[in-house]
Amino acid sequence: MSRRPxxxxxxxxxxxxxxxxxxxxxAAPPADLAAEVNPFVGTQDGGSDFGHGGGAGNDxxxxxxxxxxxxxxxxxxxxxxxxYKYEDTALRGFSLTHISGPGCAGAQDxxxxxxxxxxxxxxxxxxxxxxxxxSHQRETATPGSYAVTLDSGVAVELAVAxxxxxxxxxxxxxxxxxxxxxxxxxxxGADDGWARVExxxxxxxxxTGGFCGTGSRYTVYFQAxxxxxxxxxxxxxxxxxxxxxxxxxxxxxxxxxxxxxLDGTQPVVVRxxxxxxxxxxxxxxxxxxxxxxxxxxxRDEARAAWNGRxxxxxxxxxxxxxxxxxxxxxxxxxxxxxxxxxxxxxxVGFDAQRHSVVRGHHHYATFSGWDVYRGEMQLIALLAxxxxxxxxxxxxxxxHAIGDVWDRWSHQNSITGVxxxxxxxxxxxxxxxxxxxxFDARGALAAMVRGADRVGAxxxxxxDERPGNADYLRLxxxxxxxxxxxxxxxxxxxxxxxxxxxxxxATAEAxxxxxxxxxxxxxxxxxxxxxxxxxxxxxxxYDPGDPSWFVEGNGAQYHWMVPHNPLxxxxxMGGRARAAARLDEFFAELNAGSDRPHAYLGNEPSMLSPWxxxxxxxxxxxxxxxxxxxxxxxKPTADGLVGNDDxxxxxxxxxxxxxxxxxxxxxxxxxxLNSPLFEHIEVRRASGATLTISAPGASDANHxxxxxxxxxRPSQHAWLPESFALAGxxxxxxxxxxxxxxxxxxxxxxPPSFASGQRxxxxxxxxxxxxxxxxxxxxxxxxxxxxxxxxxxxxSAKPPAGVSVSPASGSxxxxxxxxxxxxxxxxxxxxxxLGVYSVPITLARDPDGxxxxxx
Length: 855
What we know:
855 residues, alpha+beta, 6-stranded mixed β-sheet, 19 helices, 23% helix, globular
């Protein structure tokens, strides 16, 4: 399947230039929902710092469009991932690029610094001399624009288009009006930079990167034009500051920039654009998007663009704070990824070569894959399948450009490899499931399979897409690494789903089997998914609250991360009732951090877990946990997020939860229900489909589902099929203060659980590690746990010389959902040298069938 070119008329082209969805061009003007948004949400610490990037959202408050390339925002002297720390009282600049909500700082390229005075020292070596004290009382932000009056008396106003923006700087009378372009002032430092002042314009580029301490690099360019000639200009290079002569100057180096001075008796207006291709590309972006537009025109067009996007979801009812929190979350969920191509469609790929997109499409960049595969990408695909399709194509093009190598967390056009897993495969599958299908899905699938099968670092890029993949493919798990194993399972499930939709059944079946290898981590000795070593033994003793073996979480939190087969996990745990009881204990705390064996809803690994109650036949508990989390973890104020927003991942969670549904199976489009926050909700997809949700009387007191009609028909299911997300429909709720005793309780009401490829049993030896002195002996137990049905097993031990096992073989009958035990006695010869010895025990179904090894 190849990309199909599309023809855009003038109205659609104009809409794209201001960031509106082309499928919504010409629609009736929406209500001013931008007024409900508080861009400062997430800029102040709202919770404890559990060591994963801080207790704030790390969002930025500046001017940006939906998926906007330029994101012009203030940066505080005190650093944060998004550039802005609400607790700070001084700014270091107004930079043109940002990342929304990351745990690590990145971008913040080309800070502009207005100074009511003369530059006296180099900003490269004396940045403190140019710090700009300010107060929040003289600061405002709204979607698409930002303004502040600094303590120096300089008033700053910013507004943006897609790749360009306009700034208006009003200086105090009688003071020199100076603007510094800190060309190499990116938060990650610079390898090199270049700038030129000529006429009434400034242009330049910087080579920078290093997101999260990685070796990632990118080059970004800018072009700025002023509304009047410069009265003076100059530059700095390292510690040297020099005034310019003649009509132009050029400066280059890793610590460089330029300054310009203008007549400050009237506001100074600068129009600026960026490009990731060339300075000429930035200039073309500027001409096409801003040209001679006034500040008010750019600002108003930006607000209209946001109202177009925000207006795709209309809510009524609820408290004003609820609506403000909701639309702010929706705003944050639509900031990134962002358009990466110039107005002529050109962009620089992961191969550092120039490419062009098909007319009418965009190339997107910066994907926090580990975070956004759990809900944000599904939200984007729901609202804007055209954007979702371009995101999928962009991911494929990025991977394909360097030999079908897929990143985990890419910044701009470079690999960072941050976090673990292989999440882009799940993202592409989810986008396709939600109807974003205008991309080369077959080409992407082939590249996904190649990436998932590769062992070790790719020779061309030097990047290891799946660390531990040799063991994962051989054993079914990465030794000692539950987190990565489960992430690979989710990725493989995504590949299987896309393959099945494209009719490639053999690939689908193979990857479904791989997606079930979470079973290999189930330790029947304690009932947890636990670290397992290469010899088959489990970590013992095991503390599920210990984060030492996990990525940004612990064993209690990762135990539930089998979103494609919850019923399979529950069966191993002893059934739905046992699983529900374990969930009750888990949700005794909602944001416990990674050191306690409870939920950590302020971070991604726990995001999907509240909806597991629906599979357990307890949907009312999902309704309760989700509502408690909304109240505890989200507010419409600067401290309104308790953890990193991670490019909108946490905000998307709140949007879905407020709709009363969640895409709880990555790679699929079923929606698992909680209860809606608002009395009436209308979701308008750009494809034309509409989801209408009616819940009269919805409130904190009435948040339990008493009954539900789907498209006018009564339903006992607390979930919706994929067709609802794709084609739309109506939900009519009756809510009350107590749950209905029958809604969603029957096993027949449970959402799909994909068990194909799972094994009928698991086995382990307890203890997995048995210390013995030469000549000593001890007891052990061979455990076999049914994954559902009854099974009869044959087993045999193959100890090394000097070690004996009694009995050495036998058979075991395991009842349906049961656990069988075989007592063993181990003895070590007295002349055995000290060391570590493995005793493989092979099991197979009797008379034949799948075999496994415990040690």
